[in-house]
Amino acid sequence: DTAVSQTPKYLVTQMGNDKSIKCEQNLGHDTMYWYKQDSKKFLKIMFSYNNKELIINETVPNRFSPKSPDKAHLNLHINSLELGDSAVYFCASSQNGEIGGYTFGSGTRLTVV
Amino acid sequence: QKEVEQNSGPLSVPEGAIASLNCTYSDRGSQSFFWYRQYSGKSPELIMFIYSNGDKEDGRFTAQLNKASQYVSLLIRDSQPSDSATYLCAVDSGGYQKVTFGTGTKLQVIP
């Protein structure tokens, strides 16, 4: 069973479109994250949810909107896609109170053309 | 701004040698430190974490932490070609487990 699963794995779309990426974890973790990894491999946090509550909202354009219907799911919706949004987006989860790092999903490679 | 710095590499070592990867961090309040391995086109995978000064060993991997000097390192003994990957250092400054990642060091193990 996949611990953190993301869909889709690849996403190619035109500028101006709206797209969503879904993430689900079956680890029972309390906290979920969205990270963006650019072409230079730098992983930067975008959002973090703890038990469906938004707790980290880094400097991200308003076009990005996360939604967490329950603590096992964290989706990312992106409006009016721009060329600079092209990157790999990783979902991750962790358990509060445990020093164990994150479990990452397999990533979604978004290409905006 | 909290920063985590790594040499981007590539670091090339011959098979069987010890690979030494280093990381420095700016936030003195940092509490937990992680090493992730990321193969090309794959997601980061946690290989080690450490939170006390000193060494922590797991198989061929040893993580070393020196909070006074604000650095953490990863040693890989008997390096194998399968160890060739990008190694990401990550630092947790507490709170809701917000972790800051370094830009990674690319390791190449030459057969």
What does this structure look like?
The complex is a heterodimer of chains A (113) and B (111). Chain A contains no helices and eleven strands. Chain A has strands spanning 4-7, 10-13, 19-25, 31-37, 43-50, 53-57, 64-70, 73-78, 87-94, 103-104, 108-112. In chain A, the strands form two sheets. In chain A, strands 2, 4, 5, 6, 9, 10 and 11 form a seven-stranded mixed sheet that branches. Chain A has a four-stranded antiparallel sheet with strand order 1-3-8-7, with no helix packed on it. Chain A is globular. Chain B is mostly beta strands. Chain B starts with a strand and ends with a strand.
Task: Report a brief summary of the structure.
The complex is a heterodimer of chains A (113) and B (111). By secondary structure, chain A is mostly beta strands. Chain A contains no helices and eleven strands.
Could you give the topology of this structure?
The complex is a heterodimer of chains A (113) and B (111).
Chain A (H helix, E strand, L loop, with lengths): L3 E4 L2 E4 L5 E7 L5 E7 L5 E8 L2 E5 L6 E7 L2 E6 L8 E8 L8 E2 L3 E5 L1
Chain B lengths: L3 E2 L5 E4 L4 E7 L6 E7 L6 E6 L3 E5 L2 E6 L4 E6 L8 E8 L6 E3 L3 E6 L1
Parallel strand pairs in B: 2-11
Antiparallel strand pairs in B: 1-3, 3-8, 4-5, 4-9, 6-7, 7-8, 9-10, 9-11
Number of strands of chain A: 11
Question: Could you tell me the radius of gyration of chain A in angstroms?
Answer: 13 Å
Q: Quick check: average pLDDT of chain A? A: 91
Cα-atom radius of gyration of chain B: 13 Å
Assembly type of the shown chains?
heterodimer
**Strand and helix order of chain B:** EEEEEEEEEEE
Number of helices of chain A: 0
Mean pLDDT of chain B: 92
Order of helices and strands of chain A: EEEEEEEEEEE
Q: Give the strand content of chain B.
A: over 45%
The unreliable regions of chain B are none
Secondary structure tally, helices of chain B: 0
Fraction of residues in H or I helices of chain B: under 10%
N-to-C span of chain B: 40 Å
